Amino acid sequence: METAPKSGRDVPPKKDKLQTKRRKPRRYWEEETVPTRDGASAGPPCNKKNRELRPQRRKNAHILKKSRISKKPQVPKKPREWKNPESQRSLSGAQDPFPGPAPVPVEVVQKFCRIDKSRKLPRSKAKTRSRLEVAEAEEEETSIKAARSELLLAEEPGFLEGEDGEDTAKICQADIVEAVDIASGAKHFDLNLRQFGPYRLNYSRTGRHLAFGGRRGHVAALDWVTKKLMCEINVMEAVRDIRFLHSEALLAVAQNRWLHIYDNQGIELHCIRRCDRVTRLEFLPFHFLLATASETGFLTYLDVSVGKIVAALNARAGRLDVMSQNPYNAVIHLGHSNGTVSLWSPAMKEPLAKILCHRGGVRAVAVDSTGTYMATSGLDHQLKIFDLRGTYQPLSTRTLPHGAGHLAFSQRGLLVAGMGDVVNIWAGQGKASPPSLEQPYLTHRLSGPVHGLQFCPFEDVLGVGHSGGITSMLVPGAGEPNFDGLESNPYRSRKQRQEWEVKALLEKVPAELICLDPRALAKVDVISLEQGKKERIERLGYDPEAKAPFQPKPKQKGRSSTASLVKRKRKVMDEEHRDKVRQSLQQQQQRHKEVKAKSTGAWPSALDRFVR
Fold first, then answer.
1. Measured CA distances, 400 to 87, 135, 383, 405 (Å)
2. Angle at 185 (CA atoms; ends 180, 187), nearest 5 degrees
3. Among 122, 164, 208, CA closest to 456
């Protein structure tokens, strides 16, 4: 039952079912019709221009397009909302007082920069200039990142300071072990191996593993940090030297007759008979080269990645038993009995340089990690430090009571000398400064004569091989405190070591690139370039680069294709070549006419040969 609307309220009456029928939705292209009271259509709306009513589209609105491939319903993308930066301050509403990245000092960035922006290429093309700009931008970004990452090197090198007026050379190893923590004190130990001594030793590149070999055939390798033994064998032959190869998985042992390669389980893998009677070994990690010095006077380079001998050089100086490598440029330094030190590269059959160091024979040679300084000791009981930056002059000299038979540099620039059963260590002002030979930094006496010395990488530890066994000494400030985890990671796993080997093999440096100055490889050989240009001019008879090359103008209707441009360039070049050949022929004819006119003027005489 219907009730009448209350008074005071304008409520329309309810419609019938026919009138309440749903109306058909109007499309935007249809005209709007307004129904009249009689139900008839009143025609188009009364607009001024009688335009079609189209829905007004919002700016940046997305219209659903009909997909031709899939029939899945398309979802419109939400428009990107503009965010007010003031609303992103913080929860408390305070603004950041130091917006943006932290500033980096210019001096620190310049230390890592490798491109000199002051040098500009003359008459460079636009494409070359754009590439150079991109390279400079990338280099600048890399330098800033390297300068920022330098803050992450939180470890500092150790040091040893005495009290007022106290000499640090009088501090013994027992006092140092007592003063340091338990983990550092465990790095000092003695291996009593008098039965098979004297010993030569070698640390791996990561500084985690130690290998040593005795004169009476004892060979062993272990993880010296955890004291876990990897292998121990007796080769039943005299061992003269021992070296780790690119990783701790391979071991090279110079035995009495030939060179042998073992794995970390003590299994013999190779016997290289071409390297016989070897006295010293050196491994070049970035070139995968094993350098051997023999009693016959030959310096041999063996590529361990392919198993081939790269070069066999005759030093012509007799027996070779003093050898060291320069870690900076991979040049081998050989000490001879005539007091000279020769520098060798596998790319040259003659030494790169010869330095007269001592009046007698050379007993030991060592080069620091930066390749700047070289220390030598000779039979004249003198210890000298030379500058290798082109001058090869001695910087300091010290006369020792017994003479040093073994020398070694640490990563931080400390110098150790083994004199009989005494080990002396000298320190300098820093890594890039030469060690001061006035006062020793540390002194230690062993139970037997020294036969081998080496500082452990990334540790303040000195390994000494002597006739009584192996001694591990604590030397504060000897090792580099921060290591590169991608290059030499002491804590890497087996999988990481395998991946590093693959990467190192892909980045192997050819043996032909070993030279005194590695920076010369990035420079242009101007002398050879000019000589080649002169030879080319003499061969062609003209200078092809004297005139700018012809650049054809672009044409329409497909006449600027690559083939047509090359054809037009070649046509112009042929015409220029014909003109130059024609001029040269005319000059030759003119000279021939002049010679003929001179010859027809008078009869030839026997005295014409003296006429200039």
1. 75, 53, 7, 11
2. 135
3. 208
Average the pLDDT over 9-26 and give the result: 56
Q: How confident is the model at residue 596 (pLDDT cuts 50, 70, 90)?
A: confident
* Alpha carbons 488 and 207: distance in angstroms, whole number: 9
- For residue 490, how many C-alpha atoms fall within 13 Å in the half-sphere facing its CB? 19
What's the pLDDT score for residue 292? 97
DSSP state letter for 35: B
Which amino acid type is present at position 479? G
Q: Are both 142 and 260 inside the same structural domain?
A: no
Q: Identity (one letter) of the amino acid at 234? A: N
Cα 559 to its chain centre, rounded Å, is 49
For residue 56, is it within any domain? no
Whether 413 and 435 have beta carbons less than 8 Å apart is answered as yes
Closest CA to 284 of 82, 508, 586, 573: 508
Q: What six digits make up the tokens of 381?
A: 């009981």
Last residue of a domain, which of 458, 478, 501?
501
CATH code of the domain in which 370 resides = 2.130.10.10
pLDDT of residue 519: 84
Model confidence pLDDT, tens digit, residues 25-55: 766 566 555 554 444 444 444 444 444 444 4
Look at residue 532 and tell me if it is in a domain: no
pLDDT tens readout for residues 209-263: 999 999 999 999 999 999 999 999 999 999 999 999 999 999 999 999 999 999 9
Q: Residues 216, 288: one domain? A: yes
Mean pLDDT value across residues 129-141: 86
Question: Pairing between strand 250-255 and 258-263?
Answer: antiparallel
Edge to edge, the sheet with strand 373-378 lists 362-367, 373-378, 382-387, 394-399
**Pair of tokens at residue 25:** 């939705």
The string of DSSP codes covering 365-423 is EEE-TTSSEEEEEETTSEEEEEETTTT--EEEEEE-SS--SEEEE-TTS-EEEEETTEE
Which tokens in the block code for residue 409?
Answer: 């540099």
Is residue 222 situated within a structural domain? yes
CA distances from 162 to 171, 180, 475 (A): 9, 15, 14
516, part of any domain: no
Name residues whose C-beta falls within 8 Å of residue 437's C-beta, 6 or more positions apart in sequence.
383, 385, 396, 397, 398, 426
Q: How far apart are the first and last CA of the chain?
A: 145
Mean pLDDT (whole number) for 93-109:
79
Q: Are 456 and 462 within 8 A, CB to CB?
A: yes
Handedness of CA 113, 114, 117, 118 (dihedral sign): positive
**Would you say the C-alpha torsion 587, 593, 596, 601 has a positive or negative sign?**
negative
> Residue 90 has what pLDDT?
54
DSSP secondary structure code for residue 520 in this structure: G
What is the mean pLDDT of the segment spanning 266-293? Answer: 95
Handedness of CA 442, 444, 449, 451 (dihedral sign): negative
The residue segments making up the domain with residue 133 are 106-116+126-152
Q: Per-residue pLDDT tens for 103-119?
A: 888 888 887 887 776 66
Note if the pTM is more than 0.70: no
Tokens 């055939």, residue?
A: 217
